[in-house]
Amino acid sequence: MSQTLLLIAQPSSYRIAPFLQAVRRLGLEVLIASKGEHSLISEVHQGLHIDLDDLDLSFERIIKRSQITPFAGVLGSDDSTVELAARVAQALKLPHNPPEAARLTRRKDLARMELALAGCPVPINCLLDLDKPIEQQMAGLPWPCVLKPLNLSASKGVIRANNEAEFIAACERIRPLVADATDAFERRHLLIEDYIEGREVAFEGYLHQGQLHPLVIFDKPDPLCGPYFEETIYVTPTSLSEPDQQRIFDSVACACKTYGLVTGPVHAELRINKDNAWILEVASRTIGGDCARSLDAGQAFNLEELVISLAINQPLEIQPPQDARGVMMIPIKQGGVLRRVEGIKAAANIPCVEKVDILVQQGHKLVPLPEGNQYPGYIFARGETQQQVVLALKAAYECLDFVVAPGFDLVIE
């Protein structure tokens, strides 16, 4: 009898497709729990329909379904679903992180507080209340500083402010982005933290029985100085020294222990300088978007297969790739309604480029940061050196032209 994995996901999640492919390769069945009544993805449409804004009701529906369909493992695909997945797995006595730990990974303010109390390296930070006069809350702030919504992803709403005028403007720009948050505290508050100079990197690893295992460290060769923090290129292996890599590992391990994470994927973002490897984010999920495809190595390694194997307590023997490879999350140069993308063939023909994957369709509205949080596609490259990979990604990007028309939002009085 085939085992069934429960995958809890937002209906528009990029991660659904790779998890479905990995499930099939592993010979498992899958049930997707999502807001999926009208989804064009058959597995979502035919899955278990839950309200992801009501965790208690969703938990009850899933537990009731587990009496009909026993689950071998439970996974949350995104930040917004990891806490519910942890609750379900805990109730069913399956491999899981404590729900409280999963919640810390998705609430920046709570995470910063716990990390600071534990002595983990995090930027100096505080909370700002949008319902109170902003001018009265700026005394003593470091300049520059960074403003962040408490629970948004992909750099949405993240803005650097260099002075009081920019700070006030940033608050007003972020205000409408958090206005629809389901949690009242998240609607009212922003995280303010010291801007850390240094190189930014991403750490990919996993936990098994409480032990942190590294997979790769991605360098981010493009400077991320603000005012918005649009990520573009991830490339591995890192060019950092062994001592710097150890500092990154130690910081991530400190965060995992502080949160109480014990199993599953770990994705972390850090800034490293002469003082320390500073934690910007530690999440109990895989790397965002479709970036995990840059790590695929045939039968030797697939990130989703590893994560599923941990969820069903049958961890795979894995061998992460060692050669130079990278991915570019294609940035949005200009907002508007997409008419067409030109230059795809030319981009794909650049030496070392393996794939140019455009995800958005004609008619899709492109929204740049800080209001947007989606990328129109990805470029993947592989070569002999990191420099070769970076140059190939940038050359391919220069071939692309996203032709857009102005977009208008209808306002009904």
What are its keywords?
413 residues, alpha+beta, Rossmann fold, D-amino Acid Aminotransferase, Chain A, domain 1, Dna Ligase, domain 1, 4-stranded parallel sheet, 4-stranded antiparallel sheet, 19 strands
Record the SSE blueprint.
Layout: E1 4-8, H1 16-25, E2 29-34, H2 42-45, E3 48-49, H3 55-66, E4 73-76, H4 82-91, H5 99-104, H6 108-118, E5 125-129, E6 145-149, E7 159-161, H7 164-178, H8 184-188, E8 189-194, E9 199-208, E10 211-219, E11 233-236, H9 242-259, E12 264-272, E13 277-283, H10 303-311, E14 324-329, E15 336-342, H11 344-348, E16 353-358, E17 365-366, E18 377-383, H12 386-399, E19 401-405
Parallel strand pairs: 1-2, 1-4, 2-3
Antiparallel strand pairs: 5-8, 6-7, 6-8, 9-10, 9-12, 11-14, 12-13, 14-18, 15-17, 15-19, 16-18
Helix pairs in contact: 3-4, 6-9
Please provide a brief summary of the model:
The protein is of the alpha+beta class and 413 residues long.
